[in-house]
Design brief:
The chain is of the alpha/beta class. The chain has helices spanning about 10-15, 35-45, 60, 85-90, 95, 115-125, 175-185, 195-205, 225-235; strands at about 1-5, 25-30, 30, 50-55, 75-80, 100-105, 110, 130-135, 145, 150-155, 165-175, 210-215, 215-220, 240, 245, 250, 255, 260-265, 265-270, 270-275, 280, 285, 290, 295, 300, 305, 310-315, 320, 320-325, 330. It is built from nine helices and 30 strands. The strands form seven sheets. A seven-stranded mixed beta sheet has the order 5-4-1-6-11-8-12. Strands 14-17-20-23-26-29 form a six-stranded parallel beta sheet. A six-stranded parallel beta sheet has the order 15-18-21-24-27-30, with no helix packed on it. Helix 7 packs across helix 8 (about 195-205).
Length: about 350
């Protein structure tokens, strides 16, 4: 079976609404979301993967991780016009051939269960097989109304969904999906939505079946999901110190990347510190991931994600925070003392 990863679309959908990073490249325990998808595909025995990107010259195609998978062939499929998720799947028609194929949305992150899902789909042979995940707030997701393993209808985000099984962004399709895409009309927001194509399969009486995922799953477009995913995967971190550690104490499972320096600091794992990063006169607490080429000096941080190329100085306490790539955070020494913030869309800020 071949797989298709959807990593293109309108900028508002492709990139995280606050951090501005392509969702498939959001760091989780210092690895992009896309890396975890490739891990799953390799473990499931999938050797050919088509990645739908907005451009072969864009940031998604430039990620070097696509080229470091022995035994796996990666193909880039351009969706130059952002016409929706169904249109993105249509771009893969020539790549997938005539058999069942897997589709994974680039902004979903799951751990395990993919091989079982593919085995189930291979036996059931549905026109569409949908991976579903139970969620505590189904009104925030697209939801499937199911009876047993049969999908009755798909329901977009609304206040009273018919159950708590959210669409997890992972599908198995037969070639019937392309016939549905060919005749569908754009949604109210002007996109050819993949859920709309699945709904057409239902209206034609074709078998659309559901499989419930029992393990970890997060929609990475949601702000809190970054911290939750970071905590989940850091909990599996293996200690690995490659950089320099001097006059410092490492407690628990700590990873220190190449050319990184930890000086006069206390690190309480699990903590991942990226390549070329400097942690000086600081305390870093559990479940923190610090990216590459970061400088942290005279700071305290815990349960936070600090992305590449950031500079933090004199921050008394940072907790449960996500700091976007290239950001600068510091304490102002002169009066008048005040907060000076540049706040992105849908940000959450708490101040003492």
């Amino acid at each position: 079976m071949k797989a298709v990863i959807l990593a293109a679309g309108r900028p508002a959908h492709l990139r995280h609404p606050v951090l501005g990073v392509p969702k498939a490249l959001l760091p989780v325990a210092n690895r992009p979301v896309a890396a975890y998808a490739l891990d799953l595909l390799q473990r499931a025995g999938i050797a050919e993967v088509g990645v739908v990107v907005e451009s072969r010259d864009g940031p998604m195609a430039a990620w070097p991780g696509w080229r470091s998978r022995p035994g796996m062939k990666i193909f880039f499929l351009e969706q130059s016009l952002p016409l929706g998720t169904a249109h993105a799947v249509k771009m893969a028609q020539g790549f997938v051939g005539g058999d069942l194929f897997l589709v994974i949305a680039g902004d979903c992150l799951l751990d395990g269960g993919l091989a079982e899902f593919l085995e189930w789909a291979g036996a059931a042979r549905p026109a569409a097989g949908l991976l579903l995940a139970a969620v505590p707030d189904p009104e925030a997701y697209g939801v499937a109304d199911v009876a047993g393993d049969r999908v009755l209808r798909l329901v977009e985000k609304r206040e009273r969904p018919p159950g708590n099984l959210a669409l997890a962004g992972v599908y198995v399709f037969s070639r019937e999906i392309f016939a549905a895409i060919d005749v569908m009309r754009p949604s109210a927001r002007g996109d050819l939505e993949l859920t709309g194509a699945v709904q057409l399969l239902l209206e034609r009486g074709l078998p659309v079946l559901a499989y419930q995922h029992r393990g970890f799953w997060r929609d990475m477009g949601r702000p809190q999901a970054i911290l939750e995913a970071n905590t989940f995967f850091l909990d599996r971190l293996a200690p690995d110190v490659k950089g320099e550690v001097s006059r410092s104490h490492l407690e628990g499972r700590v990873s220190v990347g190449l050319r990184a320096r930890v000086i006069n600091s206390h690190i309480v794992g699990p903590v991942a510190i990226g390549e070329g990063t400097a942690v000086i006169n600081s305390w870093i607490g559990p479940f923190s991931a610090i990216g590459d080429h970061v400088v942290i000096e005279d700071c305290e941080a815990e349960r936070s994600v600090i992305m590449n190329n950031c500079r933090l100085r004199g921050v008394a306490r940072l907790e449960g925070s996500v700091i976007g790539e290239g950001s600068r955070v510091g304490r102002r020494a002169s009066k008048p003392l005040a907060y000076r913030l540049t706040v992105g869309e849908r940000s959450e800020i708490e101040v003492p």
